[in-house]
# Entry
Amino acid sequence: MSGLTLWPIWVMLGLFALNVPVAFAMGIAALAFFVSAEGLPLEIFAQRIVAATDSFPLLAVPFFILAGAIMNRAGITRRLMNLADALVGHTVGGLAQANIVLATLMGGLSASANAEAAMQAKMLGPEMIRRGYAPGFSAAVIACAAVITPIIPPGIGLVVYGFLADVSVGRLFLGGVVPGLLLCAALMGATWAVSRRRGFKPAREHFAGLPALGVAFREAAWALTIPVYILVGIRYGIFTPTEAGAMTVVYALLVGFFAHRELRLSDLPEILTESVLATATVMLIICAAGSFGFYMAWERIPPRLATVLAAATGDPLVLLLLVNLLLLFVGMLIEGTAALILLAPILVPVAARLGIDPVHFGLVLVVNLTIGGVTPPVGTMMYTACGILGVKLTRFAVEGAPLILAMLVVLAAITLYPPIVTALPNALMGRG
# Structure
């Protein structure tokens, strides 16, 4: 790695340490490189920022964010909550369990872990505390359950990885189904164990009963069809993943206006404002990463690092374990989307060289970095839940430890046994 210009990386890391927002830290470091480099017109810096947005697959990001915002206003979230409560409200720690089931059901709708954490913290957090759940445990359950949401299709992280690694987003969506369900089961098991030990009561004394469950299913039917609609449409070529986002927006509007009749034209300005702000956060990071990525490509950092890592081990399993350790560390320091944008161009060539399936590798990356959203000191879902519920980070860290451990077990499982990820896309779409 001798002869490389590495100081922009140190500038970026130094700005991270000073708590400068990720997008600005990457942009400033890249700009400093362009200013100092000989033979590079400064105009290229602006061009690379704009060029990063010139991507058809990335259109899926604002579409799915907008669809999630519409669904929250269309009464879909409330109906899914009623269904989750009917399914598991009678179990030990029933309200916490319903929280996890709701996050899983919302996986086909929201696509954003941070949005899910904020919604559940506002909707369920105060009620959990009122019913005797410790505030730290309530925040931990809400934040950790939000990890499931972007893994169940559609997920913004999967769309971004597909764009960066040139991998079929449809296969990534299918590959996320089983890991998402495993995360749900692991979190429910850990929550049951903690709730039983600490005496957290069920939300109701008895199972709601089949008639009540049937009513809840019927009321949530429109919402439950959305992920099926997305996956079937992509599988049979009716629309691309990007077009699926647009079609989901149309579907959500029709459900909100005509099926549930809870969406009004007066709600649209606030929905659009919320969606624009959420989209801008993601896209600003992607734009800054475009200019920083040009610096890394100019210095040939990704292929050089790929050569070093490939020389360190020729065993795909050892590489995956090393990558997981690296990502767990990076995820504690850098926001997940930014880390994915920075590391995917470096790590994907290494994985390809050792014959690792790109869909499997993508799910390992996305799950790992999403778990980073609930680990100190930079976990964004952790900050969201703790901020809304007024919980100290030290309490969150203690209360969240069993839940994070459960998710790490699932991460280890999908790392060591690729068919957990690849079996469904291979069965439904053939081997890629």
About this structure: The chain has 23 helices and no strands. The chain has a mean pLDDT of 82.
